[in-house]
Amino acid sequence: MLLIGWLVLFFMVCYYGQKVSEESMNIAGSVYKSKWYEFDIDAKLRKNIILVIARAQKPLTLKAKYMGTISLVRFVRVLRRAYSFFTLLLAVTDN
């Protein structure tokens, strides 16, 4: 039960890390689709909007110190490595 709980917790962290990355990539499109360039705004606000669009081109990621970027890809890699380790342990204990 404890292992399943840890697995669900790790999946949730990785899932929401993935969602943060995906939503951060949607920011640039949303700001640009708002047609900000048609409104009469001052140069400072226009510059800030352009900076937001430029920054949103690179996804925002959550990182853990020794794990790297937290995403669903990381979740699958951890599961693969755990399964490999588990099968190795089973092979060693069978001999």
TrEMBL record:
Cited Pfam families: 7tm_6
Any one GO BP annotation for this protein: signal transduction
Record membrane topology: Multi-pass membrane protein
Subcellular location: Cell membrane
GO annotations of cellular component type: plasma membrane
InterPro entries: 7tm6_olfct_rcpt
Signal peptide as annotated in the record: 1-17
Record flagged with keyword Metal-binding: no
Keywords recorded for this protein, A-Z: Cell membrane, Membrane, Olfaction, Receptor, Sensory transduction, Signal, Transducer, Transmembrane, Transmembrane helix
Molecular function (Gene Ontology), one example: odorant binding
PANTHER family: ODORANT RECEPTOR, ODORANT RECEPTOR 19A-RELATED
Protein name, entry field: Odorant receptor Or2-like
Biological source species: Sitophilus oryzae (Rice weevil)
Lineage, opening ranks: Eukaryota, Metazoa, Ecdysozoa, Arthropoda, Hexapoda
